[in-house]
Design goal:
Radius of gyration: 30 Å
GO molecular function: nucleic acid binding
Pfam families: mTERF
Strand order of the largest sheet: 1-2
Strand content: under 5%
Organism: Durio zibethinus (Durian)
Structural class: mainly alpha
Protein name: Transcription termination factor MTERF6, chloroplastic/mitochondrial-like
Shape: globular
Distance between the termini: 72 Å
GO biological process, one term: DNA-templated transcription termination
Order of helices and strands: HHHHHHHHHHHHHHHHHHHHHHHHEE
């Protein structure tokens, strides 16, 4: 019994010797084996490509790419997998995307591999629509081991967040949580925060929104926490965690590039760090957004650059939805003598409700037509958000931007030019729209500036 491995190795050596000695005199022996193997592989790949095109609507190019990762000779298992997904409400487009991400799912056993995972999540209170969304955005869950990865990771997340539903949310926001070794790369980091005096409630709250930021090598995470603490952040405040997350998300080269942008607007390195202490999000905004906000506030609105450094939370507001509409609207009120001046915080650091109370309702009797336009813009934006579940799709964003620009043109231009339907109005609209969004609309086509047409 104990001589079997040695005997097998001996046979393998002898076989290799025979093949190598005969490869010159009888090469057909070796080539025949290779040809048979290649023919079988080609036939399998050809069937797979044909199946993906005819059954799932893949393009020939996409089907060829996917077929490199999965092979099957009969449609039995793929048909079962597709029927399984269709039964759970997945559309053909969603199934195609799932298979494109995880091609090997087509060869899975539905009863043994896929169904138990579905049943586990349902037993934890996940509804069918939620589960469909979770699996669509994170199809890797279907290829993870239920016993070795899904159940242990899910239980650890549920215990940490004190809720199964919050664990599901965390998994949806960071697909890599499930196969990740949480014992090695997450739980030690949670302990580091606790040891440094960060309240449990704030850890859980921040983890809900930024789960990926807590997953990294513990030694590096300790260095970040130490650095943030040495900068003077109070562990009891939420800003401490925000600063940790920023250092975790933004690499040093990217941080240096952001510093360069701020310095171009006259900020010193010390002033940038002071702004970071007030609002860590100054390092999260993209270089383009930083430059655009500074250009609008300094060159268009006339604010001093260092005044903005003292109120850095403005970099967390939307340029298109908040800063530009409110800024131009306030300037028009100023030009009409309805207000004497305005502060940065009053314009951009308030909610929509407070802004309307301060700048819209207050002057309703003095400029009803002007204020009506702003209310219509606000109502349309609200309805667009409702239709898109508060996450505007591209068409809704474009519709919203178009309406805001039309409102601004009507506000700023004289009545002879600013009428709806006026030809000059349309020309100005396209110029303003292109400047703000980088998109030129011509003959019902959208062309992004900088793209080849």
């Amino acid at each position: 019994m104990f001589n079997r491995p040695g005997r097998s190795i001996s046979v393998l050596i002898r076989l290799s010797h025979i093949v190598m000695n005969n490869i010159s005199s009888k090469p057909f022996l070796f080539l025949r084996v290779r040809c048979i193997s290649k023919t079988c592989s080609d036939a399998s790949q050809s069937f797979t490509v044909s199946y993906l095109i005819n059954k799932l609507g893949f393009s020939p190019e996409s089907a060829l790419v996917v077929s490199k990762y999965v092979h099957f000779k009969t449609p039995d298992k793929p048909d079962n997998v597709i029927a399984f997904l269709e039964k759970r409400g997945f559309s053909e487009t969603q199934i195609r995307q799932i298979i494109k991400t995880r091609p090997t799912l087509l060869c899975y056993d539905v009863e043994k591999t896929l169904l138990p995972k579905i049943q586990f999540f349902q037993s934890r209170g996940v509804s069918s629509p939620e589960l469909s969304k979770l699996l669509y955005y994170n199809p890797r869950l279907l290829s993870c081991s239920l016993q070795k990865q899904i159940i242990p990771c899910f239980n650890q997340l549920s215990n940490l967040l004190q809720s199964d539903s919050k664990a599901i949310t965390a998994i949806r926001r960071n697909p890599y949580l499930i196969p990740c070794k949480l014992d090695a790369y997450m739980l030690p980091n949670i302990k580091t925060l606790r040891d440094n005096g960060v309240p449990e409630s704030k850890i859980i709250s921040m983890f809900n929104y930024h789960p990926r930021s807590f997953v990294m090598h513990p030694d590096r995470f300790k260095e970040i926490v130490k650095e943030v603490k040495e900068m003077g952040f109070n562990p009891l405040l939420l800003k401490f965690l925000l600063a940790v997350i920023m250092f975790r998300k933004v690499s040093k080269p990217a941080m240096e590039r952001k510093f360069d942008v701020y310095k171009k607007w006259g900020w010193s390195e010390q002033e940038i760090w002071e702004a970071f202490r007030k609002y860590p999000g100054v390092l999260e905004a993209s270089n383009e957004k930083i430059a655009a906000i500074m250009d609008f506030l300094v060159n268009k609105m006339g604010f001093q650059s260092l005044l903005i450094a003292n109120q850095p939370s403005i970099f967390g507001r939307s340029l298109e939805k908040v800063i530009v509409p409110r800024g131009l609207f306030a300037q028009d009120l100023l030009s009409k003598g309805l207000i004497k001046d305005f502060r940065l915080s009053a314009l951009f650091h308030t909610s929509e409700k407070v802004f309307v109370q301060k700048f819209v309702n207050r002057y309703e009797d003095k400029a009803p037509a002007l204020l009506k336009l702003y209310k219509e813009k606000m109502d349309l934006a609200y309805l667009s958000c409702l239709k898109c579940n508060c996450e505007m799709s591209l068409p809704c964003r474009l519709t919203y931007q178009c309406f805001v620009i039309l409102v601004l043109i009507t506000i700023i231009l004289p009545p002879s030019i600013g009428r709806v339907g006026n030809r000059e109005n349309k020309v100005i609209f396209f110029k303003v729209y292109t400047g703000l969004t980088g998109v030129w609309i011509e003959d019902k086509q959208q062309i992004h500036i900088g793209e080849e047409v």
